[in-house]
Specification:
2 copies of one chain form a homodimer.
Chain A (H helix, E strand, L loop, with lengths): L1 E8 L2 H11 L2 E14 L5 H4 L2 E9 L5 E12 L4 E9 L2 H10 L3 E15 L2 E8 L3 E10 L5 H14 L12 H11 L1
Antiparallel strand pairs in A: 1-8, 2-3, 2-6, 3-4, 4-5, 6-7, 7-8
Protein name (chains A, B): Class IV adenylate cyclase
Organism (chains A, B): Natronococcus pandeyae
InterPro entries (chains A, B): Adenylyl_cyclase_CyaB (IPR008173), CYTH-like_dom_sf (IPR033469), CYTH_domain (IPR023577)
């Protein structure tokens, strides 16, 4: 399974109106708080790994918290990473355990996230605290041969919602948050 | 809160019969599998810490898995440790995350555990794979002044169920398992 994901800065109010005109389906809206940890025995930026606690609060229903390990890129082409994730009972307790083990919270990325379904793509509208507003267009394809046409389809979707594929950003929200802090 | 806990080797069948005669209340029975981890950046035996995944299967109902950090003894007198624990969705996934982070499973202690309530004490009958049969008598007291009489009460309970307080063992099941292996 390969994932195509394109992220661009956007004015979410305009994108929301455009999605409404196009008849895209609103699927869900959540508030996510992602805390990323530094390891005591390795430099995750150097090893290209990440350890994250994500708390997700849906519009309706209970908050869900997950612990996630992300491994380095498996290969450059597909941008595929190993991702290991499990639900945990309580984020603060997992944070306390990680802290006792010598892992330090590096930063927390908070965002309001709305998802829409449109012509086989997931369109995600993210309002990221201290970072800005972004839209992600993504889809999955079975094998590598489908990547190119999926990417072109994503560009087309971006254009139809009034966004510019060439504005594409490859930096993670964590990276953008840390950059904005170092600018201060 | 202080905990008094006394553990002695025992013939569980005899203890079970004796508890029945005394009218002790059977509270629950579970199967526990505790996996303990070594850290990549510290020696837990030296720092007197522990990191554990416990999967507990009750007689009825679903298996529950918890991640637990145990800190070093707060002081020698009370045998009190900091313990931080949270439920996790899936033990195998947490094991995979810990392994990726460089924590290695050191050993797994499996036991059948039956609990009884008797005169303010919890009596636990443990049949530990590869280690043997043990009984633990424990209770909690509000403050240090109550420790001595709680300990004497625990000795009395042990004698009433046909066990010898002087057989008391201070080694953990993990320690006993690792000792039995080094004897091989």
């Amino acid at each position: 399974m390969y994932e195509v994901e394109i992220k661009v800065p956007a004015d979410l109010e305009r994108v929301r109106n455009r999605l409404d005109e196009l008849g895209a389906t609103s699927t869900d809206a959540v508030v996510q708080a992602d805390t990323y940890y530094d390891a005591p025995h390795r430099s995750f930026p150097e090893t290209d790994e990440a350890l994250r606690i994500r708390s997700e609060r849906p519009e309706r229903g209970d908050e869900v918290t997950r612990l996630t390990y992300k491994g380095p890129l498996v290969d450059d082409e597909s941008k595929t990473r190993e991702e290991i994730e499990t639900a945990v009972g309580d984020g603060e307790t997992v944070d306390a355990i990680l802290t006792k083990l010598g892992f330090d919270a590096a930063a927390t990325v908070r965002k309001d996230r709305e998802r829409f379904a449109f012509e086989g793509y997931t369109i995600t509208l993210d309002s990221v605290d201290g970072v800005g507003e972004y839209v992600e267009v993504e889809t999955e394809v079975e094998d590598e041969s489908g990547l190119e046409s999926a990417r072109e389809g994503a560009y087309e979707v971006l254009e139809r919602i009034g966004l510019e594929p060439s504005d594409q950003l490859r930096t993670s929200y964590l990276g953008l948050l840390l950059e904005s802090r170092s600018d201060d």
